[in-house]
Design goal:
CATH class of the largest domain: Mainly Beta
Largest sheet: 12 strands, antiparallel, barrel
Number of domains: 2
Helix content: 10-25%
CATH architecture of the largest domain: Beta Barrel
Radius of gyration: 31 Å
CATH superfamily of the largest domain: monomeric porin ompg
Order of helices and strands: HEEEEEEEEEHEEEEEEEEEEEE
Number of strands: 21
Number of helices: 2
Strand order of the largest sheet: 10-11-12-13-14-15-16-17-18-19-20-21
Distance between the termini: 74 Å
Amino acid sequence: MRDIKINDACGTTCWLVSVVRSVGMLAAAATLLPCLAAAAEPDVLISTSGEKFIGALESATAAEVTFKSQAAGEITVPWSKVKELHSALRFAVIPKNAKFAREEEAKAIPEGTVSVADKRIEVQPAPKAAARAVSIADSGHVVDEKSFRSSFESPGFFGGWNPTVSVGTSYIAATQNEKSVDSEVTLEREVPGVDWRNPSDRTVIDLSASYDRTHSLLASNPATVRDVIYQANVERDQYLAPRLFLLGQATYDHNYSQNLNLGWSYQGGLGWAVWKKAGQELDLKGTAGYIQRLYYLDAFNKSLFASTFGETYRNKRKHGIEFHEELDYIPAWNDTQAYAAAGKAGLSVPISESFSVDFNLKDSFLNGVPGSYKKNSFEFSVDLSYTP
């Protein structure tokens, strides 16, 4: 009898547990169903001409809306052409010209689901909370909530890098057989990587190599000439203000055509972003530090205290075409004849989402090289670049 009572008790208990679990699962399902239905509901954009697009709102700037349509793919619509917009996803609406460095400063930014009508963006923080309205004329960016929050997180040492790999080659068979190969790897990171927050720091690492070999087929002069150039540049910028930054630089150079076996420099100084807007920036820089130049002919070696005065400019257009240039003048204070200069310019034309064709000019001038070598080294290359 005792065994039967125990079994009955166990059966009753198990049945009750099963019922409680079932009720709990039904309650959870009832709670989640409205959320799932809302999440599954697509966003809607209606233009002033009456066109209706179904899909998902991606982002917006002060001038235009980026919307991923189920039928038309990703489209960009000026705010002036938007009649209505409704999204069940959560966004942050950032006012025009708003800049902030810390997450605490961003608490006043409205976040929630968005609806647009009558040239106003209505932000609904929660189903029963009061909505906040922002005029389209006063809005600077509409950013999805996840991206907005993640912009305040540290990317870590290995995170946030934007790599670019470029390779170019040519071969000529004539009176001279000529082969050339050039390559470049650039790693760039700006923290935070968004233009609606004040910058904290920026790091640029650039590695490039160029090899050229020319062999003459003339019986009177069957010489072979080679030219090898390696360059490595590292720069770290730490912002003191939105347009003023401390910077540190390290450079390494090898240029066979200038008899330079190895040259390196370590410098630090100040930089100023004279002009900075979406897709464009002009920086002026001034540094001072140590430079060492070791030539194949030891008598020409130099140990210098020098400065670098330079500027960099970048302009990225709407369709991904980018122009960039850089110019540096490098005077040596303990040997006024050992001055140098360097410059480069490039145009990048995209041919797909990840690939582009690059046209690059580079020029390096060294005063004080051995007499039989040219002071100037000029390069022109056409490369295929890949950016993940």
